[in-house]
Input
Amino acid sequence: MDVTGPETDWRSTNFRQKLVSQIDDAMRKAGVAHNKSSKDMESHVFMKAKTRVKHRYLFPEVTGVSKEVLNNLQK
Output
């Protein structure tokens, strides 16, 4: 996940949509299945997060996808 840029970039629609796509990819590669869609999960995390760092930190917790898998999507 690309988390570079100003603190407000993580709130943009483009960043959030990119993240939803990356969650889909990570869940598919990790073989993780959920009842909620990746868009629902991203919305849940977005509502809970107050900062970009917290936003990124919450994803493995909510999706069940390891940080390593999410980090590999950046490459």
DSSP finds four helices and no strands in the chain. The chain has a mean pLDDT of 76. The longest helix spans residues 13-30. The CA atoms of residues 3 and 10 lie 7 Å apart.
